[in-house]
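Case study 2.
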Amino acid sequence: MSDVNAAATPDVNSSGLSYNAAAGIAYLTIIPAIVLLIVEPFRKNAFVRFHAWQSIFFFVAWAVIDILVGLVQHIVPSTVFLTLTALQLVALALFIVWLIVFIGAFGGKRIKLPLIGDLAERQAER
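Prediction:
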């Protein structure tokens, strides 16, 4: 993860919500991220768009990992114990990463995750 300070303005805009708060809210679930990409004052802000896209890609990656581990458990039943333990450790790691970017977004930081951050940056620049 690379930590790059953003030039996000903490001012409150016409909606009453600061850009930092909107960026943090994008990480709550995939739904607020999508909404922030549509709603007028936030869809024009590159900082909010970056965090919304990164949130979407992060939650999709998390879902793919869960599905893959579930498939391995289904195909090879003898690995249920091993994959359950691995899934719990991966879920804990993903939760910690989520918490870091969530808090960072509220603080006005642009924490770019490996691979996902590059995709989010490209989408935010569009």
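Strands lie at 2-5, 109-112.
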